[in-house]
Amino acid sequence: MPAPIVAVSPDYRTPPSVITAIIGISAVASLFLAWLVYYHPPVDVAGTHLAFLPALDAVLNALCAFFLVLGFRYIRRRQITAHRNSMFGAFIVSSVFLVAYIVNHILHGDMLFPRAYPIARFIYLWILLTPHILLAVVCLPMILITFFLSLTGRFPAHRRLARWTYPIWLYVSVSGVIVYAMLASYR
């Protein structure tokens, strides 16, 4: 049985220390991921161990996008409990994605797009990958703060931030699937 949905007084402010902590944790996580992707030498250079992880990441991104769209649909219909469950589904799937992504990069390192396809590589790098990475970095603290606001009953603030978080999170999830599909099709 889900916890009852209770709003706090509109006068109750979100503690700045919580927001600062969420942003700090997100910054450390982003720096760790940047180090992992760009500087950490892969453990399994041959790519034989857990070779299914990139495909799993794409499936998890697609599932996240599905839950996000479902959650948006539910909130538009004022089905609060179904919305909440869908958003928890998106959060859980994204969390599992992050673990699989980290393990994949520890083992295999970063997958580079082949230079033999310059037009496709340009599309991959500048249209998909660059905004995907930048928005993923921005999205992490937004997701955590949006969840914090909801879980603590600060629904007006939750709604205001969710209007920005939702499209960015959805873009990152969908573009993650496209990035995988492009890498897989040109390898």
UniProtKB/TrEMBL annotation:
Quote any Pfam family the record assigns. DUF420
The portions of this protein that span the membrane are 18-38, 58-75, 87-103, 123-152, 164-183
Q: Which domain of life is it from?
A: Bacteria
Q: Which UniProt keywords apply?
A: Membrane, Transmembrane, Transmembrane helix
The molecule here is called: DUF420 domain-containing protein
